[in-house]
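Notes from hallway chat w/ T.B., transcribed later so I don't forget. T.B. wanted the structure written out for a chain they're using in a teaching module, and asked if we could keep both sequence and C-alpha cells in one place. Agreed to drop them here.
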Amino acid sequence: MVAPLRLATRGSALARWQAEHVASRLGRSGVETTLVFVETTGDLRRDVPLSQLGGQGVFVKEVEAAVLEGRADAAVHSAKDLQSTTAPGLVLAAVPERGDPRDALVGSSLASLRTGALVATGSVRRRAQLAWLRPDLTFTGLRGNMDTRVAKVDQPGGPAAVVVAATALVRLGWTERIAEYLEPSVMIPQVAQGALAIECRDGDDATRAALAPIEDGASRMAVNEERAFLAELGGGCDLPVGAYATVANGVVDLTGLLCSLDGRVRLVARGSSGRAVARELLDEAGGRALLDELAPTS
C-alpha cells in the first residue's frame, strides 16, 4: 500500500482551503493525501509589520522546513509568499491553474473614498500604487488572517477600505465583500499573486511525479517570468514592486513595476522576459538609483 502524500500547510482558513484544493485535485489523479499543519512566525507575530519580520517569506520558511526535515513530502504555498529564488534543497514542483491575480478593495471603491480617507494595507506595493493614484489618501498597516482584515472596515473608527488579494476572497466565498476589483492596468499585482506553488525536496522524483498532473503550463510560465523579474531586481517580495504576466500561444507579455515607498515615483516597463523587463527598469528608467534609496541602512 502506498503511503499518502503528506502536504505541509499553514493552518489559516485560506491556507487550509488551498491545501485541500490541491489535495482534491491530486485525488482526481488517484493520489491519496494527508495534511500536515505548521504554525509560522508570520502567524504568531501578527502585531509586527511584515516588512519588519522579513516580508511575506515569514509565512513559508517553517512550512518549507517541514519538507526539508522529512515531516512532509510537499508544501502548499500562496506563490506570492515565496522568495524570488527557491530555497536550497527544494524545487518548485507544480504550479496549478492560476486564480484571480487582481487586488480588491473592501469597504469602498477607489472613486468613492473621500479626501483624506484611511485605507489599510500591509503591502508597500499596494500602498505605493494607491498613493500614486490618490495622493490625498492616508494609510495604516494591516495584519492578521483574512477574516480579521476584512472585519476592520466594520469596526467603529476603522479604515474606510482595506486592500486584499481578490483570489483570497473568492476562495473563501466572500466575493460579496468586494467593493471594487482593481484591474492590473490600475494596480499591478504582486509577483505570482493568485497562483499556488507546491514545493518538494530536490531529487524526490516520486513526489514530483505524483504532483505532475496538477501542473498548468501557462500558469507556470507566467509565475516563472514574474519571479525572474523579482530575482533580477535583487530583492524579496517585500519591496514596492509588482509584475503581471499573461501567456498567449506560448508567448509571455509581462508588465513590471518599481515604486518609491511614498508612491511619488512609479516606473513601469513591459516585455516578454521578466529579467529583461527588470533590467530595463534598472538601467534605462532610473530604477537602480531608486533601489539604492530603498536599501536598508546598517
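Follow-up for T.B.: The mean pLDDT is 91. Might be a good example for the class.
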